[in-house]
Amino acid sequence: MSTTTRTNPLSYLTDQMNELKAKGTHFRLRVLEDEQEAVCTFDGKKVINLASNNYLGLTTHPKLREAALEATKKYGVGSGAVRTIAGTMRIHMELEEKIARFKNVEACVVFQSGFAANAGTVSAILGKEDFIISDELNHASIIDGARLSRAKILVFRHKDVAHAEEQLASIKDQPGKKLVISDGVFSMDGDIGPLPGLCDAAEKYGAIMMVDDAHSSGVLGRNGRGTIDHFNVHGRVDVQVGTLSKAIGALGGYVCGSKDLIDFLYHRARPFLFSTSHPPSVAATCIAAFDVLEQEPERIEKLWENTRFFKKELGLIGFNIGGQNTPASETPITPIIVGEGRLAMQFSRELFDEGIMATGIAFPTVAEGKARIRTIMTATHTHDQLTQALQMLKRVGKRLGIVN
Ligand SMILES: *Cc1c(COP(=O)(O)O)cnc(C)c1O
After folding, report:
1. What is the residue-averaged pLDDT of the chain?
2. Fewer Cβ atoms within 10 Å of its own Cβ: the N or the C terminal residue of the chain?
3. pTM of structure
4. Mutate which of 136, 138, 246 to test ligand 1's pocket (most atoms within 8 Å of Cβ)?
């Protein structure tokens, strides 16, 4: 064994973390001690939870819990291989068939996460001769997929259909394939992508149309069928991505489309080929979740009722909830924009001490000067809990000079 003292080659990471600490945007992970619920315990403190993506309260739904336990008893805890080797279980196929029927498309492939679905799909269907026309606020997994594909990336201004069309026009004589891609619901601002206009533009220029419905699955459209259903653009979106990790309450992502698209992804999407499939309990949970979407539509109604109430009251308190220099939320995601990263983090910390879990989000996740806390409604928040949360938000907001 060598006795010479070794200098730490990772010390530059420590320097960077020290910089974050000096800027006030360094964070510690908050640890959940019980279940992901409207009121739960983080770091030993009981708080009203405004931070989860558990829109419909499905993380603890008795039918989903039962399905997971049952599948574990019957099929064990793991799949033992990637899908293409020996890790395709009957229950994986059942889930894909179930989602395809729900979305009224030919076929579906499930990935380990929404991130893997986006990154794996974009990088598989395009190559370096091709073009991606992408909204500037699209999710990181789309951006990573675009980079991995080595296609040329043309960014259009947020939700600006005319700019997307300009980008398409600028490459109309180039031989490569073109892909127009947008989030269905944007995760930091809660606004909805302009799908009808983007579909028109894509059709005009013969481009492929792709939508990432992570925050719209289970939230928008009939029984939570997503933005394609919300806008009634059925048959006009070639690649529909959704997540099983948010409203669905478990974990995973999926791509819906034609039989040939899905067959191609079975053969070429790298996370599908090189990473092990879900445990059977996860597949069973998701199957049960789609039954709940069909059988308990009142959950989605309650989610929207809570959303309308909470947004209105936040506005009345005087918070900047978007709409001036920032997009205006139209969904259960409501940002409270405060500007400086340090202030957003302090706001989040003091809210926690008061009894609210609401995460501070700063650069680089959102633009410099647009730091915020992000609140997310769920169907399971009671009116009482929301009234309490609003009082706490008002108290802390006043104390920090965020509202008058
Ligand atoms: C959360 C999210 C994803 C990733 O989904 P996971 O299933 O959590 O990996 C992809 N796209 C968007 C827009 C998201 O908000």
Report:
1. 96
2. N
3. 0.96
4. 246
